[in-house]
Amino acid sequence: MKGTIVVAGSVAQRPGFGGHTWVFLQYLLGFRRLGWNVVFLDRLEPAMGVGETGITYVVDVCRAFGLDADFAVLGERGEAVAGLSRSEVLERVRDSALLLNVMGFLEDREILAAAPQRVFLDIDPGFGQMWRELGLADPFAGHHAFVTIAENIGKPDCTIPTCGLEWVTTRPPIVLDEWPATSVEGGSFRTVGSWRGPYAPVEYEGTTYGLRAHELRRFVELPRLSVERFELALEIDPADKTDRDNLLASGWALVDPAKVAGDTDAYRNYIQSSKAELMVAKAMYVQTRSGWFSDRSICFLASGKPVLAQDTGLDGLYPRGEGLVTFETPEDAVAGAAEISRDYERHARGARALAEESFDSDKVLGRLLEMLGVS
């Protein structure tokens, strides 16, 4: 083994969200494939309203993927409530090559200070940068390096502020061995997600940057315009009943993500039994022309499922037209779905090939470490 990489992020806070869990697993398992020891750090406090369920969920996930000796969940006062003891955490962090702090979730000053290199990993681009510019919050403080999956940050057409920081751009990685290509007869265009998510819209320099709800409303009529079937595993609050009713009335099939994608295996099975993905992005990603690409979409691609993706400024970043088809308007989406169905086998092969070429964790994480000066 080469040494240790620590990944810090929030899983215990969202038990039963299999797709969210896979975001962190791709990094942990991917670094391990490259020969690194890995440690996962999480925290769970009473105010998060989850309780023992979250701890049990993390323990089960880590055991399932051979990480049961390589994780810790920290409590409200920084004590370890599961996994490694606090002293063991501090020892392994001190000996690490870097600590990858996903969205700055780890705030424990002593543990952060022990890391030789603290790297902020931005997987929800636009929000943190605008908060900092508006003086609302500074999630980047105290880190040595800054990584984002907004591949267009700093380019003229991208409106995400750089905050005067030097950003390393990366793509979301996928461990291909965990996501083999599968075949399916029939099926529907599917996706998994939240109607709103944890953040509110942000008003910045005269523009309001919105959420996925704002984009999905633009495409609510899609099932009526297409012969394809569209299914959303959608987390949506009862307060959004009008939107839910409109989706159902327009022909969307809605399922409970906790039932079809509530753990890592169920999430994988749900994706691999689909025909293709319809990816509607958060308005923040679309409006800023961020170049963001979904960590969920790469799971579809690796599984040999074509992706019909809303354009977030992808021109020049990825080859399109074979496995990946993009759209901007409802009419584009209808045409794209028809194109995928017209030559499905070609698009299915193209999807897996794109995953292998552009998102293979060996390539993505190897490049990331090189950019961070870690050999």
Overall domain count = 2
Number of strands: 16
Q: Helical proportion? A: 25-40%
Distance between the termini: 12 Å
Strand order of the largest sheet: 4-3-2-1-5-6-7-8
**Overall 3D geometry?**
globular
Number of DSSP helical runs = 15
Gyration radius (Cα, Å) is 20 Å
CATH homology group of the largest domain: Glycogen Phosphorylase B
Tell me the name of the CATH class of the largest domain.
Answer: Alpha Beta
Structural class: alpha/beta
Reported for the largest beta sheet, the result is: 8 strands, mixed
Q: What are the segments in which pLDDT stays under 50 over at least 5 consecutive residues?
A: none
Mean pLDDT: 96
Oligomeric state as shown: single chain
Second-tier CATH architecture of the largest domain: 3-Layer(aba) Sandwich
CATH topology label of the largest domain: Rossmann fold
Strand composition percent:
15-25%
Architecture overview:
It is a single chain. By secondary structure, the protein is α/β, with parallel strands linked by helices. The protein has 2 domains: 4-173 and 361-371, 3-Layer(aba) Sandwich (Rossmann fold), CATH 3.40.50; 177-358, Rossmann fold, CATH 3.40.50. It is built from 15 helices and 16 strands. Helix 5 (127-134) links the parallel strand 6 (118-122) and strand 7 (145-148). Helix 1 (18-33) packs across helix 10 and helix 1 (18-33) packs across helix 15. The protein is globular. It starts with a strand and ends with a helix.
